[in-house]
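Annual report, structural modelling task.

Input specification for the magnesium ion complex:
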Amino acid sequence: MTDYLTIDNLTKRFGGVAAIDGCTLSLRKGLITGLIGPNGAGKTTLLNLISGMVKPDAGRVSFEGHDITGVAAHRIASLGLVRTFQIVRELSGLTVLESLLLSPGHQMGETVSGALFRRPTVQEQEQHNAIKARRILARIGLWHLADQSASQLSGGQKKLLELARALLLEPKLILLDEPAAGVSPPLLDVIMRLIRELRDEGISFGIVEHDMHLIAELCDDVHVLAEGKMLVSGSFAEVTADPRVVEAYLGMPA
Ligand SMILES: Nc1ncnc2c1ncn2[C@@H]1O[C@H](COP(=O)(O)OP(=O)(O)OP(=O)(O)O)[C@@H](O)[C@H]1O
Ligand SMILES: [Mg+2]
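The model returned the following structure:
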């Protein structure tokens, strides 16, 4: 299946500069896809465009056959496409559990059963979300920290919490923006194992990352972005052997 997430000729300009410049690629269902490229290549902008946080100037994005170009982020999330952030949001004053529950969940009454039967009260919904959040915290190994201050988490634990926030939305496809940045090696192993397990359970991933160990270990497909354009696609071995990729990273012919 090749047309799970498709990005067709996408363009986004900031001022006169095209951060994304006629970019075309597709992600395959059930796999982990890596998106790599030098600093400023447009990787985060591409995630912002896919997830509905920034609107493109031209081009099209579709997910599972739905045209999601320019659609609001919460609507895209409700289709099962969620993303995490390169820079983890400030969590001061909240416990780990509270900060997890801040994530925008599904709106009450939107489901078929909600419309047909009695709608859950806000209190019931909150209780349900808290139970679900604790279950996810247990899964990612942060259950014992649920009631501690979120600002005291390590860099890696904050990245895990970002992943938990995505999982709370029951996603089909998760886009991760630099899940390894600022993460200690032991926690990186935990994160990588978790991503692999979730992939085996049917969740698809798109991962933006500079850590080539993570990309090499996890990714089924790798796409290289340079100056807003798709440069090379293939397996990790294929793309890293390509002289155009070496040149893009070094800024000179290989
Ligand atoms: N909101 C914005 N306004 C103006 N320029 C922007 C904006 N967002 C991104 N850019 C520019 O677009 C280009 C691509 O930035 P982007 O953050 O997408 O790169 P990146 O590949 O994620 O880089 P990094 O690996 O450093 O995170 C850069 O030149 C950046 O300065
Ligand atoms: Mg970035």
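The chain is about 35% helix and 25% strand.
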